[in-house]
Write a structure and sequence with these properties.
Rossmann fold; six-stranded parallel sheet; 10 strands; globular
């Protein structure tokens, strides 16, 4: 058993979709969530910039004695191969659990992700190796409206529809929401692909983390876990942004990484 916290991070609020799944799966665990809002979005940055930010946030969580780190950001996951090789801490990204979930009962898969994630080719490789028909779409332009709280607006429905319209006649049966922010625009995406199965990162990532912690004997013996939120921008701003999640947490703190 190990009662140290689990670290979770994203470039902004999208990773809270994953955090909520983790809290549900691990009610006895403490979580430290870092929203690197100051540097959001990651998806339009260079590989070098993303890797540097990933290292800085990860080092912060390691210094907080986290027993595991969940990279709740597809773009960061695609630029964190060096972290997955660490032996003294469990590090899990969202891409492989999400991609593997999408392999079930699918033939034609649309991958909606940031430019950087699509450019990495990781989703495409997993799906093509499984003989799936893959349609990757660079969707970095969806992130800013989500961070601004514009989900569900007429303008956002139009933005999503216009950007994905070229896939309407492809008989897509599965859509990977390959950016954790995109769970917040599920309704907009569903309007374009009403018959498709939408795959979010939260549940498959939670299931994979459980296997890892159980195997390493790192599950907590706490009776009830707590959630601590950190932001690299402003605590009040994050407080307002996350109201839509109805997440219970202890406090929000601004940090410097």
């Amino acid at each position: 058993m190990n009662n140290n916290p689990i670290g979770v991070f994203d470039s902004g609020i999208g990773g809270i979709n994953v955090l909520k799944s983790l809290v549900k799966k691990f009610p006895n665990e403490d979580f430290i969530y870092v929203a690197d809002t100051l540097n959001c979005p990651y998806g339009t940055k260079s590989k070098e910039e993303i890797k540097n930010l990933v290292d800085r946030v990860s080092n912060y969580l390691i210094n907080k004695k986290c027993k595991a780190i969940v990279i709740a950001c597809n773009t960061a996951t695609a630029n964190a191969n060096h972290l997955f090789e660490l032996d003294d801490i469990a590090v899990l990204g969202v891409i492989l659990p999400t991609a593997n979930e999408a392999l079930k009962n699918s033939k034609k898969v649309a991958v909606l992700a940031t430019d950087a994630t699509i450019n990495s080719g990781i989703y495409q490789e997993v799906l093509l190796n499984a003989k799936k028909e893959v349609y990757p779409v660079k969707c970095s332009l969806f992130v800013e409206p989500i961070e601004k709280g514009e989900c569900g607006t007429k303008e956002n429905y139009e933005l999503v529809s216009k950007h994905l319209n070229h896939l309407k006649d492809k008989n897509i049966d599965t859509v990977i929401l390959g950016c954790t922010h995109f769970a917040l625009i599920s309704n907009e995406v569903k309007k374009v692909f009403p018959k498709a199965n939408l795959i979010n990162s939260g549940e498959p990532t939670s299931e994979e983390l459980y296997k890892i912690l159980e195997k390493r004997n790192l599950l907590s013996s706490n009776k009830k876990g707590k959630v601590y939120l950190k932001t690299t921008f402003a605590a009040n701003a994050l407080m307002n942004q996350i109201k839509i999640f109805n997440l219970k947490y202890e406090y929000i703190e601004k940090i410097i990484i």
